[in-house]
User: Fold these one by one.
Assistant:
Number 1:
Amino acid sequence: MNLYEITQDQLSIISFLEENGGELTPEVQEALTITQDAFEKKAEAYSYLILKMEAESDMIAAEIKRLQGLKKSKDNSSERLRDALSVAMMAFGREDNKGIKRFETPTLKLSTRKSESVQIIDEKAIPDSYMVVKKEISKTLIKEAINQGIQVDGAQIITKQSVQIK
């Protein structure tokens, strides 16, 4: 029996009690006890499962962080190697009629190419006309406004119940 079924049984018993003026018969008492015992066992099992899943989630997050660090290290290393190879290509590569440095091995073909990119030297000196502003909803500001009695179209405050496991 899962928690939903236990809850439904509990609600059925309560409804039965209300219909019969609150009379607690031995059968109803036994059903309540069984339901309570089942709930306690299920609630404990669910709680341990939740704690286990949360611990696994934390381990996965730590592994993701470790792998991201490893990825960054590999990216940096490959970029340094690429830069060193580029310098060597400029010095030792054979230039074709288009001014492109080339080098070939039996399995690889290397060549240089020109590209352009913008380098920001002083971000504060860039005029506002070149700035892009990202629009983002602030739930904190919306909550404060609603609590002050201001109507915010498209938003409302909801109250939630959550379970704490300690």
Number 2:
Amino acid sequence: MQRPLCSFARNKKFSMTKEIWINLPVKNIAASKEFFTKLGFSFNSQFGNTEHSACLNIGSKNVVVMLFAEPLFKSFTQNDIADTGKVTEVLFSIDAESREEVNALAQKAEEAGGIVFGKPQENQGWMYGCGFTDLDGHRWNVLYMNMSKMPRAN
């Protein structure tokens, strides 16, 4: 009888995943690198950095977002690429340390050629955020959460 995978994980015969890499199709690697650099993000020049790919690092934990030229991405997925002008395939949410940082990222995204689809505003009395699209229409959400104002469960 074959054991389910979860029982192996509980018995520590398999190590659980420790990292996640997000893969995104882009039309132009150089333009995407310039866009994200203008937003203040960094790239790992030693990993996945070719004319067909780039390794974008996000946050203090260096979450990896691999940018792949669309033909290469399509060869991995063996599926059509979502038309981000018509549908949303995912919403990436990143935290901000302040309302001012949310405002600054929205402005930088717009100045770099992105579209701010959700102007910076307060939400639910304790969150402040905005939404923008990158050059390829991928949607990003920037959110500052004032935890002192967060509603508490009863």
Number 3:
Amino acid sequence: MLHDTKAWSAECSRVEQVKVPVTSDADILLARKRARKLASEANFTAVESTFIATAISELGRNILQHAGEGEVSIKIDQQEDGTVLIVVARDNGPGISDLERALKDGFSTSGGLGLGLPGVRRLMDEFEIVSHQNYGTTVIAKKWARGYTSGRLRKTSKASFMRRNGAAAGKLAAVGSVTR
């Protein structure tokens, strides 16, 4: 899938949210580039941008490997206590049967190192995952710009996860862009 770089650059300059359908490795690279552009415009540091891009790579690889396709949304949000970049990765794949195990280092269903989801959780400041068999998985990960100090930063590394019934998982997947 080819993407027009000039159009992409102009789009990132105008909006504070982008959505990238993920159907190939090229789409993951595009999502990383768009996230770096948004992060740069919002004064995130180079290190923070690298963490965000790495998290998007891991989430995108999970989408391709386990669901075949999905979407990554990236949004900048200005809140009272600072600027946050929000990544929402979602798919309609088979879901994760054991979230607790999937979030432990070393657990892998694909023969990999098992660092994907636990790595994303460590790289980002906030992390939430909801998955249900036959309804897919939605991950919401947030990174706060360190240039904006706030009391909220002392409460980072919050992680929550749950399995929900199909109706609740479907509602979260539909609402995915609501991340507050």
